[in-house]
Amino acid sequence: VQLVESGGGLVQPGGSLRLSCAASGFTVSESVMRWSRQAPGKILEWVATISAIGTTIYAGSVKGRFTISRDDAKNTLYLQMNSLKPEDTAVYFCGQGTSRGQGTRVTVSS
Length: 110
Description:
Blueprint: E1 2-6, E2 9-11, E3 17-24, E4 33-38, E5 44-50, E6 56-58, E7 66-71, E8 76-81, E9 90-96, E10 99-100, E11 104-108
């Protein structure tokens, strides 16, 4: 299992970013996939999950602003992040089971 996140960067408050997670060694569409994040000095926080049948759930702090999705043909997981806030600043990780990628850093600042 390998997960490689990308798409992070610096964005102003109110802006948008789309994170990607390229998966290999398993099939994303057959798995429960998640995004988590870790802000500086804080513990890992779950953000969103998508099930094998496409059901999605979100943490209250991101519901209505973030969208988890996948591209089955590309075996890739996404996190569309809109209306970003400074408190969304964190390293974002995708995960499947006990596996997790190396993360991609998102900084929301003016």
